Amino acid sequence: MTAALMQEGRTGLTRRSLLGVGASAMLAAQPLFAAEPKPLRIQRLAWAGIRLALPEATLGVDLLADPAVWETALPDPLPELGDFTGDRYALITHRHPDHFDPRAIARALGDQGLLLYPASVGAIVVPGVSRVRSAPLWEPQLLGDSFVVTAVPAVDGYGDPQASWVISGGGRRILHAGDSLWHGAWWQIGRQLGPFDAVFLPINGARFAWRQPATEVSSVMAPEQAVAAARILGAKILVPIHYGVRGAKGYEEIADALQRTVAEGARRGVIVQALKPGAWLNWDV
Fold first, then answer.
1. What is the Cα–Cα distance from 160 to 225, expressed in whole angstroms?
2. End-to-end CA distance of the chain
């Protein structure tokens, strides 16, 4: 930092102005004719899983491939995941088995890929995966030259540690919210890291009977909450995830969650793109 800036710091230099100086320096360092960002493709997978694909790298979030997790209650086709190409990365939002499937992660990453997890969940070990590291909240993590990912606050229905992920790559920025509840950090996330080209939010408003005494209060975001969060985050597109389970003992979700999400999006001016597992996001909506 220059002497002038140091002097300014002693006389009221704000965090915003520091960020502005840093951004200006970064822009000045860019080549005059910067290359166009490589196109980012995003595929919805089973349950809460997604895949982000660039020509040189692939990143998966909350991958699920173990049929024993939901058995017949989840009709989603489970992905093979052996087709991750280039540099391979995986993120998890929390430890619950429908979001942390070691078999799926090992299959996607092989012995060279990197698994990143929120520091709050404690140490993670995946057999066959040697590159594993944690990420504190709000600290951006560089994944090669392809992605920048940042763990941000989330609230788990069981009270277990959980985080959402902000992911930037290919000229796009998205957020994946695992199976978070509604919470008050949406505004902070939106102000500091938004707006977003797309947000992948849970919508099924699930209620659990696995812990007693059971409650009628939803332990996952409901459709109207997901749409409200998308608006706060400045999202161009809301992609619903984490819905479609039927007949699981002790687990009840809102029966018409997707229809309610689409209707609320239309009412609130939020574009809802409902993707079947295996389908790819269409940016041009």
1. 20
2. 44
* Residue that has been written with the tokens 């687990």 in this structure: 251
pLDDT bucket at 35, cuts 50 / 70 / 90: low
Q: Are 193 and 233 in contact (CB under 8 A)?
A: no
H helices within the chain, ranges in order? 3-10, 15-29, 102-109, 186-193, 223-233, 257-268
Name the pairing type of β-strands 163-169 and 87-91.
unpaired
Predicted TM-score of the model (pTM): 0.88
d(CA 74, CA 65) in angstroms, rounded, equals 12
Cα gap 221→204, rounded to integer Å? 7
CA 251 – CA 102 distance, rounded (Å): 23
* Separation between Cα atoms, residue 41 and residue 84, nearest integer Å: 13
Residue 141 forms beta bridges with which residues?
Answer: 149
Task: Give one DSSP letter per residue of 194-234, joined into a string.
Answer: --BSEEEEE----EE-SSSS--SS-SS--HHHHHHHHHHHT
Residues constituting the chain? 285
CA torsion, ordered 34, 165, 81, 115, to nearest 10 deg: 90
pLDDT in tens, 110-137: 999 999 999 999 999 999 999 999 999 9
Nearest to 117 by CA among 131, 98, 103: 131
Among residues 47, 147, 162, 51, the alpha carbon closest in space to that of 98 is found at 47
Phi, then psi, of 238 in degrees rounded to 5? -105, 120
The total of other beta-carbon atoms located within 10 Å of residue 236's CB is: 18
The residue assigned the tokens 């995986």 is 90
